[in-house]
Write a structure and sequence with these properties.
2 copies of one chain form a homodimer.
Chain A: H1 3-22, H2 31-40, H3 50-53, H4 57-67, H5 77-97, E1 102-103, E2 106-107, H6 109-113, H7 115-134, H8 142-169, H9 180-202, H10 207-234, H11 236-239, H12 247-250, H13 255-263, H14 266-272, H15 281-290, H16 293-314, H17 319-332
Antiparallel strand pairs in A: 1-2
Helix pairs in contact in A: 1-4, 1-5, 4-5, 4-9, 4-17, 5-7, 5-8, 5-9, 8-9, 9-10, 10-16, 13-14, 13-16
Chain lengths: ~325, ~325
């Protein structure tokens, strides 16, 4: 069984578990509230469908991690739903915080129902994610439930730390390379490392093995984020010049940018003068590449990928699920195997 | 030992536990983030002190419930901190949702640091409250930790339900008495019933006794909310006429108002015409009283109080802590014993 087949097998089970969890709000007085959540999850409303739902990468990682240890992945479904709900809670609140009007091609929750409702939708998803974890008690000892919840809590607190740093950077003019890692460690790696860690825990991995899975997820998250940073500046869409999708136009404190700011060259000079316009994107991206921002980020991404794969190599992943997890990692990093 | 002495004994322990929990954010990159939480909790910033911190009623109820069963209340401190953090998370988000600039006489978190930061502050408090629950594992079996967390989750989901209803009512023009209870059950009673329930659970109460404690908290919450509704219209401050503190001016869907809307008399007519001005408060309050809104609410408050006390009478509360819990209930209901 390859990754595609694993996805075809697991995805319907993930969606079912997610829908069952979110159905907690589907009661007589709160049907419309429930709809706000099902809309965001991509199941209802205009434009509903697989595209609107997103790829469900995180729950897939949880399930593949459990399966790679030879344990039935179905037992981890509530945990898989939990991490996806945490991810989506953070998206709903992020969209308010970033003032983003679109998400996966559709109007965001706050655009449709206002900021106060969107805050409440995120809060409800957050609670439901923990309720999903507690559902593990049906099949797992209470100690494992507490451990799983604790791992997820720590990841969530790190999400808020990363979010705080990201927002606080907007007001700073003295950023350098050293400011990148604490932010990205929280925003991207915290939840991905929780996915591999929880998947391994529920797959009955020992302490050392759990730690290797956790590290795999953590460095996978870092490598993925750096890749994303590179594509956000030099990817096809970012470079059209017309697109405001470029991270340069959005003023994002990505790794190439923070590297170049530390160099204090022409790029840094231009960056500090204020927002990059769409018309400037090509020139500024070229300047950033010239000053080494792209090469540095590629080097780091490659390094983090190697570290991630080293940790995955340390654990005794079993059979097809282990192969698929590696395939998924490579897909995330847009690499050929 | 009376209530005052219990408070003097327990309050410093509650504050210490809360501070230790919130200190999770007191790390090198997030000190300023940590400060936002300590400011809201009333410990730091301009106007810090006991007034700014609030009364810590909810954690006191948890501890008194445990103590009333003859168990050391110190063992319940992490749970007590958890409910207070949940309460405060909801206040931080409420203030954003209601656009409230002041809380306990001080600028709200969003007023000081902006809406995006305030959302994140609430999210962090929410996570920390669950982390506090997990700390119970140091002294309690994992099964009790899972049960405590599940009770708190259910209360939190009900908080979001109540919040949703409250916000959705703002756009409705057809409200009646039957719309009051689902909203208030979520907004006020959910967390209070979790307090007495969790306190009893950690006090090793049996299932039936836990249920009685839970019901006591639930009806105490309803009675308290109705009392609060009455004071919000006919309390001293609300009636000065100058004050915009009147719930009538704020357009709050309180019990007296919803009762009178169902009567479809002169009050209902005026209410539907738009906001009550401060100058009108006295006349409209008198009209509402004439049409029976006050008497109805007083009757309901008395009834809910009796139900609450009946449930408290069912359990075998022990010694001074039991007395103090009754005293606290009476204090909340502004009654003489």
């Amino acid at each position: 069984m390859n990754l595609k087949q694993h996805i075809e097998l697991m995805l319907p089970a993930i969606e079912k578990e997610l829908q069952d969890q979110v159905a907690r709000l589907n009661t007589s007085h709160t049907r419309h509230f429930h709809e706000m959540l099902t809309y965001h999850m991509g199941w209802t409303g205009e434009g509903a469908g697989r595209e609107a739902a997103g790829k469900r990468i995180r729950p897939l990682i949880v399930l593949l991690a459990t399966a790679s240890l030879g344990v039935d992945w179905r037992l981890s479904l509530p945990a898989a739903a939990a991490v996806e709900l945490v991810h989506n809670f953070s998206l709903v609140h992020d969209d308010v915080q970033d003032n983003s009007e679109k998400r996966r091609g559709r109007p965001t929750v706050w655009t449709k129902w206002g900021v106060p409702m969107a805050i409440n939708v995120g809060d409800a998803m957050f609670v439901i994610s923990y309720q999903a974890v507690m559902d593990l008690s049906r099949t797992h000892p209470a100690e494992s439930v507490v451990k799983t919840a604790s791992i997820l809590h720590e990841a969530c607190l790190n999400l808020t730390r990363g979010q705080y740093l990201d927002m606080s950077y907007e007001e700073r003019n003295d950023l350098g390379l050293e400011d990148y890692w604490p932010m990205v460690g929280g925003k991207t790696s915290a939840l991905l490392s929780a996915c591999t860690h929880i998947g391994a825990l529920l797959g009955n991995a020992g302490e050392e093995e759990q730690e290797a899975y956790r590290q795999f997820g953590y460095h996978l998250g870092l490598a993925f984020q750096v890749q994303d940073d590179i594509l956000g500046i030099w990817g096809d869409e970012a470079l059209t010049g017309k697109s405001t999708a470029s991270d340069l136009v959005e003023g994002k404190n990505s790794l190439p940018v923070l590297y170049a700011l530390g160099r204090q060259g022409k790029f840094a000079e231009r960056w500090k003068q204020g927002p990059i316009t769409p018309a400037e994107v090509k020139t500024v991206a070229a300047l950033l590449e010239e000053e080494g921002g792209r090469a540095y980020a590629e080097e780091i991404s490659e390094k983090e990928t190697q570290v991630a794969l080293k940790y995955l190599g340390e654990v005794n992943v079993q059979g097809a699920a282990g192969e698929s997890m590696l395939e998924l990692a490579n897909m995330l990093l847009k690499r050929n195997q």
